[in-house]
Amino acid sequence: MNITIDGKICQAEYGEFILAIAKRNDIHIPTLCHNDALPGQASCRLCIVDIVENGRNKVVTACVYPVTKEIEVITNSPKILNMRKTILMLLAARVPANEHLNKLIAEYSVSPVQRFASDPGEQCILCGLCVKACETVGLAAISTVSRGITKKVSTPYDEPSLSCIGCGACAQVCPTGAIKIVAAGKSRTIWNKNFELIKCEECGKYFATREQLEYINTKLGLADEDTLRLCEDCKTALVCEKFKNLYAANS
């Protein structure tokens, strides 16, 4: 089927989300809480768009709205732009000094709001992407805790989590860089838990925690896999070498 986004006719699969269709057609829709590797969150609400369906307009979040019929999508109407400005204003009130958020604030010319008291060191927008990433890995070492103005992402009782393997998936997907990983020599610290790092058997670089490799082995059974104890660069080099040898053998 075809849908129209900002006047451009775009092909769409039944059930495909508007955001994915827009990305494929190089149409920009801003996001903070979206990651292509994870299901849509619709937490930050920045990806709101206006759709015309059966002659009626309604505002939806592009990351979780599935296309089931031919519709018209408007990503930058005055109404949508004003709503995004309000969303950014509220996010900035919670996170007043964040370089990732400030880029969007500048893009949408959002004026700073002074009437809300905020923690100048706060970086988390409570989008929940880190929690979803940890759940997807299969660990659930972190979650959102408490309510209202005290709501936050943390480990159980703010103690080092027994489930955490120090993989850093939560930090990788965090849109504002709120989750910090401290790496020093052969150790890594995240969520107040210290991990011993394993050295790459090829180049000697420390690259993964012992718990992380043990978890991969348990889940995937890769104890004898020759790439398990190699860093990403050396894994890539090894795979390339294997393909080169395979090509040479078949030439």
UniProtKB/TrEMBL annotation:
Name used for this protein in its record: NADP-reducing hydrogenase subunit HndC
Encoding gene per record: hndD_5
Species of provenance: Methylomusa anaerophila
Transmembrane feature ranges: none
UniProt keyword terms in alphabetical order: 4Fe-4S, Iron, Iron-sulfur, Metal-binding, Oxidoreductase, Repeat
PANTHER family noted in UniProt: HYDROGENASE SUBUNIT, PHOTOSYSTEM I IRON-SULFUR CENTER-RELATED
Top-level taxon: Bacteria
Domain called 4Fe-4S ferredoxin-type: residue spans: 114-145, 154-184
Function of the molecule: Ferredoxins are iron-sulfur proteins that transfer electrons in a wide variety of metabolic reactions.
InterPro entries, A to Z: 2Fe-2S_ferredoxin-like_sf, 4Fe4S_Fe-S-bd, 4Fe4S_Fe_S_CS, PSI_iron-sulfur_center
A molecular function (GO) term: hydrogen dehydrogenase (NADP+) activity
SUPFAM superfamilies found in the cross-reference section: 2Fe-2S ferredoxin-like, 4Fe-4S ferredoxins
E.C. designation(s): 1.12.1.3
One Pfam family hit: Fer4_21
